[in-house]
C-alpha cells in the first residue's frame, strides 16, 4: 500500500515526499527548506533510523510504524510558532480516532480507543505513550520562519527501553496501517492548521486541546533538570504553558519539562 495524501490536503496542493527508509523525516524536511522549498510538504516513511524526539531523545521508527514530518513557513515569531505543536496534537488525535472507527467498521475484531493529549506534545492510549511529536524552527533568508513538525506514531511496534510505558496500535487492537493513519492525518492537519491561522486561532486550538487533555484537573508533577514542581493541572495559557495550582494556591505557568501523573514522588521515581 502506498502513501497518499487525503483529499483535502491533495486539493490544497500540499507536497508529499515518501522514503522507503530515511534517517530522519525532520532532517529531510529542514533540508528541503534550506534548499529553497517553500510549498507546504509532508515527508513520510515506515522506517526511520536516526530520528530525534523532544529534548533530542532518540526516536527510532521500526518498519511499519509511521514517521511523518510536515514543513510549513510563516511570518510569525518563534513563540507563536511553538503553539503550532498543539494544533498537531489535536490533528493527530482526530486522525487516530477516525482510523480506529474505520478499522472497527471493517473488522469486528478491531477496537476503538480513547486517545488523550499529554502536555506538551505526546498522545497516550490507556495511559501509555502512542505518539511523540517534535517541533523545529529556523529563520529563512527571506525572514520567514521554517517550521517542521515531526510526528512519530507507533503503528505495529512500540520502542523498547524507554522510561515510560509505550504502546502501539496493533497492541491496542486497531487494525490499521501507517498509510491509513497518514492519509487521515494529512487532512486533519490541513483542517487544524487552518484553524490555527498563523497563531490567530490558537484560542480555538487551545479549547480543542483541553477537551482531549490527559490529567486535566488532577495532580501532576513537572521535572526540569533536578527541579520538580507539583500541583493540580488547571489549564494551558495563551502561550501554551501548563498552569499548575500548587498546594498553597499559587498559579504557576510551566514552559517546559517532563510531566508525570501524581505527586513529586512519581517524578523522582522515574530517575
Automatic annotation (TrEMBL):
Per its UniProt record, what InterPro entries does this chain match?
A: aa-tRNA-synth_II/BPL/LPL, Biotin_CoA_COase_ligase, BPL_C, BPL_LPL_catalytic
Alphabetical UniProt keywords: Biotin, Ligase
Q: Name one GO cellular component term.
A: cytoplasm
Molecular function as annotated in GO: biotin--[biotin carboxyl-carrier protein] ligase activity
Q: Does the keyword Membrane apply?
A: no
Give the reaction(s) catalysed.
biotin + L-lysyl-[protein] + ATP = N(6)-biotinyl-L-lysyl-[protein] + AMP + diphosphate + H(+)
EC number(s) stated in the UniProt entry for this protein:
6.3.4.15
Output the superkingdom of the source species.
Bacteria
The chain positions of domain BPL/LPL catalytic read 15-197
Q: What NCBIfam families does this protein map onto?
A: birA_ligase
Q: What is this protein called?
A: biotin--[biotin carboxyl-carrier protein] ligase
Q: Which organism is it from?
A: Rhodopseudomonas palustris (strain HaA2)
Upper taxonomic lineage = Bacteria, Pseudomonadati, Pseudomonadota, Alphaproteobacteria, Hyphomicrobiales
